[in-house]
Task: structure prediction
Amino acid sequence: MREYLKLIEKTRSSLLFKYVLFKCLLVTFVILYFLYIFQIIEFSILSKGLTALQYAKFGLILFVFSVVYIFILFAATLSNVYDYEMILFTSILIMSTILKANAADLSEFFMGVSIGINLKELLLMILGLTLWLSVLFSISFIAKERISYFMWSLVLILISLISLNALGHANIAIPEWPPESLAELLSNRVLVMSLLTLVDIEICSNLAFISTITSENIRKLDRIYKALHEIFAGKTLSETSLDRKEIIDTASKLKFSPLALIMLRGQSGIYALEETSGEVLSKVAGFLKSRSAQDTDFIKAALGLKVIPQFRFVLLSITSSLLLKLPLAVLSTLLAYYLAAVLSNLYPEVVEVRTPMFSLVVFLLFVLIFYLLGLAVTRRITK
Amino acid sequence: MKIRLTNVAGVYLLISFFGFYLSFSLYQLRYLLSFLASIGINVGVLFPNIDGAISLAPWLLVFSGILLSAFILSYLRFSMIARFALLRLEAKREISSDKIFQGEMTSVCVKIRNPTFFDLDRILIVDVVPDTFDITFGENYADTFIRAGGQAEMAYVLRAASRGVHLIGPLNILLRDKMHFFVSSIEIPIMSEVRVFPSYSDIRRLEIAQKSMGGFLPGQHTILKIKGAGYDFHQLRQFDHSDPIKLIDWKAFARLGKLLVREYLGERIIKLYIIIDTSYTMGYGYRRLTKLDFATRAGALIAYLAKRLQDFFGVMLFSSTVHNFVKAARGRGHFMRVLSVLAEAEPEGIANLPGAIRYLISHEPRSCFLIIISDLESDIGAIVEGVKIALANKLKPTIIVPMSPFFEIPSPGSSFKQMFRDAVMIEYLRRINAIASKITQYGVKVAPVSPQNIVSVVLDSYIRAKHRFIGAI
Result:
């Protein structure tokens, strides 16, 4: 059985290498995207975002203070006390207890604070904070491989960029629609950003997909390796002491009734058959040995080695689907808007055809027809 | 086939529609600015580049349009794969042994082949295993990618923890796309039956004891060998005038010059029926450790012993009706049939002992020995009537009564639980004694048993019957 343990170790290392590779690619794409965004905006916005955090902290303290003050005021009014200075100091005392701070310092803090902030500065701070939030969402996406986090990150970036552009703190030179030449189209920052966003969504989603499958298989191999090691080589001293510690910890937290203990033992079927876990493990070991002698394919399947995907096929599948989907999506959209433009040129006397809503309606109709046609074709193929 | 949207698809669509909304808001902003300017409000101080932001609107419209188109294309692709490939998946389950004893292992191998020309991006395969089995090695699920024409194979080892006829399956398959936008699932109805016989551990213990005693079974039945008209040679002894002349061994006389009589071992074969009450109350007790489980274990041991001693043995499972009946016979094949019937025992209905005895009489008109394993929790009158009918038809029963409190109430850990258990036991014993006194007056033995001694008491009853030739043919 040693050779199977070695086989699992080897497969696991190979999977781990691939997993790290996919993660690195994912990080690279996300960093590239953020680098592009950060060179559009002014860098000072990010530091303003951090300053906003300080203000947010202050705002929170102020909110708590207001609540405390209102309660004290209400209580004092009920007791016919109208000494407002005393009410203020009582509130500060309670706040100092809540925050575990010196009351004199807190009093100075409340009395001496002056906020020299204008509306534009406040807006910039909020937008800076939004950008930081999008960075955090992206980090979560990299860690958890959930594409929805990346989507939220993109939404926040989009809002921040448009607002910063309006405030004059983002350098996006936006040409009039439609562009006059191809060079103008290709040098357009909005176009580059849009394409980068689209490609990032698609590539990062696919990288997240392949990373998830790889990590699932690594975890599965880990579980099976542990089980196989326990069956054939027993537990190491550190594992045993860890298990014992876990049992002690669990026992100190939970007290099982005798009935629950019997039911728990019965759950594993060990009690019912009067077998100890050691006996069961030795039976499993014997069974695995005899089965592996009869059929080596069986043991490989049991080790989970026959469900590991072949990555060259996965990558091929990802590439082919991206190469088909992305150009088709861009083409169909442009075609829909081109159709809207043609219609507006055909009927220039109709005011409605010149509105953006007309473009959207034509686009949606086009998409609907495209969808229905696609569905009909799908059903025909799958019949 | 249903295709469900995931929350990721929801966020994606939200972004797409948000793009459209933002674009239209920017278009509207142009009108709002001109209105504000007309009433003397200039926002240019705060937003110096507002016109630049407004000119972003058409780009946003196109970008959102591309996102929506990409989404629809993804849906069409997934829909095609789900409708075409998912329904054409070829699944196969192989079980190394579908007839095993409780506590033994069997291996399950599941193969899924994708014969279509579509890749299955992310497929979660779950083979449903009932909780009557313990998965001792491997996993019954896999999350993988199956390429066009490819195959995935998973295997695991099961330990039968509970007696019965169990079904493994169906196979649940969940398909997701690469972007995790859509989910579709199907259930492949491939079922595999595994028949789990009662535990072999008691029989194995008996076999080990037999081997250690040089091939003889331990206990009272070892003195069963008596002289008689059998075929196995016993001894040669001096001729007595009362002996029939036909018994003289003339070859021995020619060799030794003495009149010797050849004696043979008597073959007293009995016919017994293991009658197990499968009423719903027999299903009480701990999981996989009910009164019925113990009863079937004891039944399996008796059947084994009867097979070894070449007795005729049959089995009957009854509650309100007779569920299974195997007429008494001998041999290994018959033993396996009896085990198979014992594996099928399921607690249901209310016990009807007179009905079961009448059924037995109609199928077995000759005298025989009955081992009835019942908790006697049905009507007392019916139980007594059943016993009377049996006795009237030369059937000699012995009733083994699993005492419910021992099977259903755990060992007390505190004085309060001890009190509760004692109270229940007192009431229970009062009832059992009342029933036992009514039955024993007809000369029928009633043996109350606990989980610890049920097997030995049943074994003892059989040996005693064998010793006394109860139900002898």
In short: Residues 40-183 of chain A form one domain. Chain A touches chain B through 107 residues (CB under 8 Å). Residues 261-271 of chain A have pLDDT under 50 and may be disordered. Residues 113 and 144 of chain A are 41 Å apart (CA to CA).
